[in-house]
Write a structure and sequence with these properties.
By secondary structure, this protein is of the alpha/beta class. The chain is built from 11 helices and 10 strands. The strands form 2 sheets. An 8-stranded parallel beta barrel has the order 1-2-3-4-5-8-9-10, surrounded by 7 helices. The chain binds erythose-4-phosphate and phosphoenolpyruvate (PEP).
Length: 375
């Protein structure tokens, strides 16, 4: 009779074959393995309507057109650094949806709905990982909330963008997403390149945290090719995935610890590197600039100045910038993560954000600049 003991135990009654079935050489540092339902269960529970799927499909196409130079508008990815409160996220989405409609001739506005946070060392890793912000790590609840929030935002006619961090998460959410990012800390990761090669939406690779562009440019090329790798399907079975390659990968300039890279010379330098590295064809037409992170030293006042600077350059006719990213929420600044009842409503629990009123002004400035450039 098999004696079911946890890995690492030394039960002398176990036979050799039982040792092979429950090898004590495995799972030594695992405390718990807690099953959660497969992606299909979440997709069935929170089904996207035809109207929501149309928002995703149409927005992806518009973004592709912008990235490939067939649409002269500006892609604008704007929203909180991370979402921690569904109510505040939806209030923000209501505000933004109105401006998306108002500026649709000049801007393709997509809301940042970021649920996975890559940390430099340790810290709160986002709503999916710890939705109650209290260290209880209810990932099942977090995944449900993430999908629900995306669905609610889409119901307003507002498309969503997110960072893909865990390679399994896209199976739960990707039908809802119009633009994906691979962050600076993962931009050289083969796993993320493989993932991007099979994703159904355009994907932006950030420059690396040290400022180097080449890893991101190489990623665009690598992800435009087919790949074969291990993954899971919608029923949670382990599968060997075979991808076609993603023709819509591009570089996002986000600055670095040694300074910004949003100026014209840096953009031209990045474009030259993209051409030299045979980056994905989306990269030939331009870059997206993230005004947050290393481009503003995580200071939202500077972030707004960066957007104003780029808007002036766009109005003056500068080419090579296809999109812009901004971290913005209802309230300025940030606060330490804590359970919801201890937090200031509408304020970021990760990086500092531009407040809503300033965001609205900046979107108007960007729309005017694009109008002028394209007139
Ligand atoms: O976008 C958010 C942060 O910049 C990113 O998660 C890293 O944050 P950290 O350096 O505080 O860990
Ligand atoms: C973590 C982010 O960015 P980066 O990878 O550029 O640090 C982000 O955009 O939330």
């Amino acid at each position: 009779m098999a004696i079911l003991r946890g890995p690492g135990s030394t039960d002398e009654r176990r036979t050799l074959s039982e040792r092979a079935v429950f090898p004590e050489t495995m799972d030594i540092n695992i405390r718990q393995l807690d099953p959660i339902p497969a992606p299909r269960s979440f997709i069935n529970d929170i089904q996207l309507t035809d109207a929501q799927l149309d928002v995703v499909a149409q927005s992806r196409n518009r973004i592709r057109d912008i990235l490939h130079g067939r649409d002269s508008r500006l892609l604008v990815i704007v929203g909180p650094c991370s979402i921690h409160d569904p109510k505040a996220a939806l209030e923000y989405a209501h505000n933004l949806a109105a401006l998306r409609n108002q500026y649709e001739d000049d801007l393709e506005i997509v809301m940042r709905t970021y649920f996975e946070k890559p940390r430099t060392t340790i810290g709160w890793k986002g709503l999916i990982n710890d939705p109650d912000l209290d260290g209880t790590f209810n990932i099942r609840k977090g995944m449900f909330l993430a999908r629900k929030i995306m669905s609610d935002v889409l119901a307003l006619g507002l498309p969503v963008a997110t960072e893909w961090l865990d390679p399994i998460t896209p199976q739960y959410l990707s039908d809802a997403v119009s633009w994906g990012a691979i962050g600076a800390r993962n931009t050289e990761s083969q796993v993320h390149r493989e993932l991007a090669s099979g994703l159904s939406m355009p994907v932006g690779f950030k420059n690396a945290t040290d400022g180097s562009i080449k890893p991101a440019a190489d990623s665009c090329y690598a992800s435009s090719n087919e790949h074969h790798f291990l993954s899971i399907n919608l029923d949670g079975q382990v599968i060997a995935a075979e991808t076609k390659g993603n023709a819509d990968c591009h570089v996002v300039l986000r600055g670095s610890s040694s300074g910004p890279n949003y100026d014209e010379a840096s953009v031209q330098e990045a474009l030259a590197q993209l051409r030299a590295s045979h980056a994905g064809s989306a990269g030939e037409h331009g870059v997206v600039i993230d005004a947050a992170h290393g481009n503003c030293g995580k200071d939202e006042v500077v972030e707004a100045q960066v957007i104003e600077n780029i808007a002036q350059r766009l109005a003056a006719g500068e080419q090579g910038i296809t999109g812009i990213m901004m971290e913005s929420f209802l309230v300025a600044g940030n606060q330490k993560p804590a359970p919801l009842d201890q937090l200031t409503y509408g304020q970021s629990v990760t990086d500092r954000c531009v407040p809503w009123d300033k965001t609205a002004q900046l979107l108007e400035v960007l729309a005017r600049s694009m109008h002028q450039r394209n007139a």
